[in-house]
Amino acid sequence: MWKVLLPVVIGLGVVVIMFWHDAKGENLAAVWDKIHFTPWSVFCIFLAFVCMGCRDFGLTWRFRALTDRKLRWKQAWTVDMMCEFTNCITPSAVGGSSLGPVYLNSQGVSLGRATTLMLTTLFMDELFFVVACPFIVLLTPAHDIFNSSGEGFSHGIKYTFWIVYSLIAAWTFLLFMGIIWKPDWIQKLLDKISSWRWLRRWKDSISGLGANMIATSAELRTKPFRFWLEVFCGTALAWTARYFVVNVLFLGFLPGTDRYQWIILARQFVIWVVLMVSPTPGGAGLSEWIFSNYYGDLVGTAGMALIMAIFWRLVTYYLYLVIGVVIAPGWLKKYYDKIHSGNSSRPTAPVEKDNTEK
To answer: What is the DSSP letter of 281?
Structure first.
């Protein structure tokens, strides 16, 4: 429970601090008075939840496609929810995919194949960013996509974006080499790296990564083009739908921002790339701070920007924290029951009866 409460405390704590320091005389009551819950704004909030529903459909669809539809829709949805819950309570640099093989294994997928599938999802996520980000940046003027309420912040997020994007591109190329093109080369490289003195303690894990890449490559090379198209479409739908949450929230609460819809969408790509290296669980605190500063020039006031950040996090983050708290105990119980029943069902040696009973 403390891992659930920690990101909540961090996120809300940062929001309170920002209201205290950056609201420039605006009190919370005055900011809330500017929020009008009209039928249109309520409809836009509903659309925000619909966007997240499309996001979940995309990832559930992807898990179904990856397992050749061996998983039922409910099973794939459970895996998706548990991965997202893991995202909420672990640093963004770790991510929900770290326990993805365990979640897939709980639904009947062998652990080895589950690791293969999660490497594939990781590659698809990174590939989407590598392909989509240059396209978005090229179609958006630099002063629109990186400009914000402060010049120092604008330069900082611009440089951070390109540094993180370069790391993602390098990691994506490594995954491509490891699981599709030349997995044996990557395994030799990883074995050489693991022999370095200061990395020897992680030698088994690094060597295991190389072995998993070879196993993944052996399976993926037999997949038809339709498989790749379906998996990538599910990935693109999931991420794009998540980005559109901010667009519909702006439409609902900030009239006149309809002409900035492309800029709002483009900045979401930048935000999520930067948040990939967040050290806090689920990007708590950092997300609210980046959002309120990054969109400050479009919102107008610091207080309103923070309110928008809170709505955004409620739909895209806190909702999944609550869902995870609800389904995680039941999942854990079923998983441990499965393990225990598996142990108890192991065949034992026959016990000979004594002569008297005969």
So the answer is: B
